[in-house]
Design goal:
Elements: E1 7-10, H1 14-26, E2 30-35, H2 43-47, E3 50-53, H3 66-76, E4 80-82, H4 92-100, E5 104-105, H5 110-117, H6 119-128, E6 136-138, H7 144-158, E7 162-166, E8 175-178, H8 184-199, E9 204-208, E10 214-222, E11 228-240, E12 243-249, H9 256-272, E13 277-285, E14 291-297, H10 304-311, H11 315-323, E15 338-345, E16 347-348, E17 354-355, E18 358-359, E19 362-364, E20 371-375, E21 382-383, E22 390-398, H12 401-414, E23 416-418, H13 424-430, H14 434-438, H15 445-449, H16 460-476
Parallel strand pairs: 1-2, 1-4, 2-3, 4-5
Antiparallel strand pairs: 6-9, 7-8, 7-9, 10-11, 10-13, 11-12, 12-15, 13-14, 15-22, 16-17, 18-21, 19-23, 20-22
């Protein structure tokens, strides 16, 4: 790759920074990493051609410090910045500042980010573009008393149950489900407080709560040559606290008719804001086949690998091509086989999914055909409370959904992480849930199955003790057995506990 982009600064860290840096390397582009002091020994720093220390201690002083990042970009002589996801990826002011500095922003325009970043504006824009939106009302009032009054009045028109959602929200923040009218005002106050704390914007809007629906999203790509396409759908219905934990492509219950209609709606959504680059249009798919616009994510998605696995398109490489002014390389597309992604977190799933810390004393991912691991950590790294607790994304592909699910089971069984608590056991149990097996998942599944929180089936203490013994045996080589031609199968000697455990590792 040549042309307008030759040196890229990755304004991010961890797994997604590694993903982008590797794509730059494969594209023949020079790469620059920025890092906080506590990330000095991280993998992404090593993968970059150049790396620069960010001054400061907090996230605000480092990865969110726009002027500092821009100064580094100018001094390093980069001609493009890739924001990844999270941090500054959907900050229109940063995208505008990058462009005004004469540096290529790898993503949509600041105007497109603004239109889609404010969810109330996005709803209005989508209605005008003919994209179906969930029945609801926008509340523009910023004064608390006036806002609460308007919310109460709108609720009588929208009906219950309903959702309160922060206009500038994301990641489930500023979102509250309200089943009954008497719960409304307390929920609205709580949603506004959380929205102000997270986004500096307390505005909320109301949507009808659609129960039993699937969360389905469409990946789109748009270049500067007048081409906007979609790459099929992903289903992301399995969520906890509005955070996705299990994603797959294609959706198990999708029909060609709905896929075509949803794809056209996604392309219309992107076209309505003159979109450029990679983006995702999210929908709710009702049991009767109706679908409604949720939001558009104006960045690369965490779950983009499942789309890559079934289409063969390297979405990050396409982002680089588009930013360089080139036409996207993908031609006619079709989805082949089935891909599933799970998110491995350092968290205690049995204790309300609280984040965990500690050393990655053992970190041994699964291997074999059809397995992909996107991660920014290695064995020996330390999990700290400084950042998001996601350690890795495990993605599998197989010719059919049944085979993909079985491959995921096997992969989770083989994944060994010791030293900190993870959600591996929880993810493995998910694979055996009847709704997951049958493809009938919806956004309420986890809450329905475990209303009081998830608890492992097996004794954690017993398994942890056995696993530690297994780790010692593995590292010391005690599991190895030598056979000569005259030895029988009924041999004596130490056997690795890994061979006999249920393999649902913590």
């Amino acid at each position: 790759m040549k042309a307008m982009v030759s040196k890229v600064l990755v304004a991010n860290r961890g797994e997604i920074a590694c993903r982008i840096l590797r794509a730059c390397n494969e594209a023949g582009l020079a790469s620059v990493a920025i890092y906080a002091a506590n990330d000095a020994s991280s993998l992404f720093v090593e993968l970059a051609d150049e790396s620069f220390l960010l001054e400061g201690d907090t996230i605000t002083e480092t990865y969110l410090h726009q002027s500092q990042i821009l100064d580094i970009a100018k001094n390093a002589g980069v001609d493009a910045i890739h924001p990844g996801f999270g941090f500054l990826s959907e900050r229109a002011d940063f995208a505008r500042a990058v462009s005004e500095a004469g540096i290529q922003w790898i993503g949509p325009s600041a105007n497109a980010i603004e239109k889609m970043g404010d969810k109330m504006t996005a709803r209005i824009t989508m209605r005008a573009a003919g994209v179906p939106v969930i029945p609801g009302e926008e509340i523009e009032e910023t004064d608390e008393d006036l806002a609460l009054q308007a919310i109460e009045q709108a609720s009588t028109r929208v009906g219950f149950p309903l959702l309160l959602k922060a206009s500038s929200g994301g990641g489930g923040k500023g979102m509250r489900a309200v089943e009954h009218p008497e719960e409304l005002l307390d929920a609205a106050r709580s949603a506004r407080r959380e929205a102000i704390a997270a986004f500096g914007d307390g505005r909320v809007y109301l949507e009808r709560l659609l129960t039993g629906s699937k969360h389905v999203e469409i990946q789109v790509l748009a270049d500067r040559h007048g081409r906007t396409i979609h790459l099929g759908e992903r289903e992301c219905s399995v969520q906890r606290r509005h955070q996705k934990v299990f994603e797959e492509a294609p959706c198990a219950t999708m029909t060609e008719e709905i896929r075509s209609a949803m794809g056209k709606a996604a392309v219309a959504a992107a076209t309505a804001v003159d979109y450029e680059g990679a983006g995702t249009v999210e929908f709710l798919l009702a049991p009767n086949g109706e679908f409604f616009f949720l939001e558009m994510n104006t960045r690369i998605q965490v779950e983009h690998p499942v789309t890559e696995m079934v289409t063969g398109v390297d979405i990050v490489r396409e982002q680089l091509r588009i930013a360089a002014g080139q036409p996207m390389s993908c031609g006619d597309l079709q989805m082949r086989g089935h891909a599933i992604e799970v998110r491995l977190y350092a968290e205690d799933a049995s204790n309300n999914f609280l984040p965990a810390i500690g050393p990655l004393s053992v970190f041994v991912p699964p291997e074999g055909p059809g397995i992909r691991l996107d991660t920014g950590v290695r064995q020996g790294d330390e999990v700290t409370p400084n950042y998001d607790p996601m350690l890795a994304k495990l993605i599998v592909w197989a010719p059919s959904r049944e085979e993909a699910l079985q491959r995921m089971r096997r992969s989770l069984d083989e994944f060994v992480v010791l030293g900190t608590t993870t959600n591996l056991r929880f993810l493995r149990e998910l694979c055996d849930v009847p709704d997951v097996i049958e493809g009938t998942t919806d956004t309420t599944m986890i809450d329905r199955l475990w209303p009081n929180g998830w608890n492992p089936n097996a004794s954690v203490e017993l398994e942890d003790g056995a696993l530690m013994a297994a780790a010692v045996a593995e590292s010391s080589g005690l599991h190895r057995q030598s056979h000569s031609s005259h030895q029988s199968d009924d041999f004596s000697g130490p056997v690795s506990p890994f061979r006999t455990l249920s393999r649902r590792y913590p």
